[in-house]
Design brief:
The protein is an all-beta fold and 123 residues long. The chain is built from no helices and 11 strands. Strands 2, 4, 5, 6, 9, 10 and 11 form a 7-stranded mixed beta sheet that branches.
């Protein structure tokens, strides 16, 4: 089992920034990549960003490219999503997830999920 705990969500004005954190614990040796996804009310879960466990391979959704940055702490099993220039359409519950496969934008390849953290961007 891998446990994932997100933090850092909140309310921010458009144009502002937030940094989400995801602390991973448990059997993390089985994990090869981490991902961030988001889900707004009435919408499907959407890929945001992914990073290899080593941190040297990343990918982003077109909608966040250039504004969001995914990274990891080299000393702790903690992953981050730095979100800049936030827009109202970024409002959603953000989830971190772990996969035993390579970095992927497909939610079904992730087998462990955090509880989610709410991000609300006001206009």
């Amino acid at each position: 089992q891998v446990q994932l705990v997100e933090s850092g969500g909140g309310l921010v004005q458009a144009g502002g920034s937030l940094r989400l954190s995801c602390a991973a614990s448990g059997r993390t040796f089985s994990t090869r990549a981490m991902g961030w996804f988001r889900q707004a009310p009435g919408q499907e879960r959407e890929f945001v960003a992914t990073i290899s466990w080593s941190g040297d391979n990343t990918a982003y959704a077109d909608s966040v490219k250039g504004r969001f940055t995914i990274s990891r702490d080299n000393f702790e099993n903690t992953f981050y999503l730095q979100m800049n220039s936030l827009k109202p359409e970024d409002t959603a519950v953000y989830y971190c997830a772990a996969t035993p496969y390579r970095p992927s934008s497909s939610w079904y390849e992730y087998n462990y999920w955090g509880q989610g953290t709410q991000v609300t961007v006001s206009s």
